[in-house]
Amino acid sequence: xxxxxxxxxxxxxxxxxxxxxxxxxxxxxxxxxxxxxxxxxxxxxxxxxxxxxxxxxxxxxxxxxxxxxxxxxxxxxxxxxxxxxxxxxxxxxxxxxxxxxxxxxxxxxxxxxxxxxxxxxxxxxxxxxxxxxxxxxxxxxxxxxxxxxxxxxxxxxxxxxxxxxxxxxxxxxxxxxxxxxxxxxxxxxxxxxxxxxxxxxxxxxxxxxxxxxxxxxxxxxxxxxxxxxxxxxxxxxxxxxxxxxxxxxxxxxxxxxxxxxxxxxxxxxxxxxxxxxxxxxxxxxxxxxxxxxxxxxxxxxxxxxxxxxxxxxxxxxxxxxxxxxxxxxxxxxxxxxxxxxxxx
Length: 344
Ligand code: PMP
Description:
Layout: H1 4-7, H2 10-14, H3 21-24, H4 54-64, E1 71-74, H5 77-88, E2 95-100, H6 105-112, E3 116-121, H7 130-136, E4 141-147, H8 159-168, E5 172-176, E6 198-203, E7 216-219, H9 222-231, H10 239-249, H11 252-274, E8 279-282, E9 289-294, H12 297-306, E10 312-313, E11 323-327, H13 331-343
Parallel strand pairs: 2-3, 2-4, 4-5, 5-6
Antiparallel strand pairs: 1-7, 6-7, 8-9, 9-11, 10-11
Helix pairs in contact: 4-10, 5-6, 7-8, 11-13
Bound molecules: 4'-deoxy-4'-aminopyridoxal-5'-phosphate (PMP).
4'-deoxy-4'-aminopyridoxal-5'-phosphate binds at residues 76-78, 103, 147, 151, 176, 178, 203, 205, 211, 216.
């Protein structure tokens, strides 16, 4: 791996971050706060939240088996994705490499930040080779994005190839595990100590059932996390979100229960979906959704919309011609979809 200084944009490396009132004061008990130009009325929402979310990180750390200093919290994992570009990629100079198809925000963030985006097409089994990613890279490649389980294909990417990339790539490898709670494979969090160039993304939006609170997590070396913390907005995670996430951490057994029943439903749904006349193929999945090739994705999508049922039409995505991406819902929701498609 290159040194972190070599990988970081020089202006970011040199940046002296904004210092907020709540950054400067921490430690001793205090009861009179006249430091942040807040309104003394309307507690508790009158006060700025903890800028580095200490209490929440101390709750997350033991569950994820990492140190609090290895955690960055963002306004969704989308914030962490964007900050990776802003921290490491010089606009108009550097580039990133990702597999195709994959989660669309990597490309959007690259374009917003004027960073070249190079993609490597997955094979017919939606797998990739580390060699092909490395062949697409050059001396200005700072980041590689791997989403596993991948969106929209649903499958885990080959672990051996991800490890090979971590061994051989000089820049940072981002493994987006938004859906890993639904997979049997272990998380890459266990590899953080071995690979200083690894960044793992997870989110409260999927298995944790908290898409509305907007909370994403990036896990990496404390040095990488320090750079993200330096450039984030001072109070990027609001108090309501921090409180709700702390509440969720205290009932993480509930999440296991949700995952268990969603996986049961996933098995049932796939079996039933395969029996439909309009179904050509259901791709293997490790996520809370599946990709299905159907007779005519556009017509079926429109028909379902007319029946008040919304799925995702992925027909225009590379390798996904005539494919619908279907999220696993509750049993009655899944039955509504199956019933409608039986009538199609
Ligand atoms: N990564 C992947 C693979 C996703 O599918 C999504 C959401 N669709 C995200 C990241 C972003 O999640 P959030 O910003 O809600 O944490």
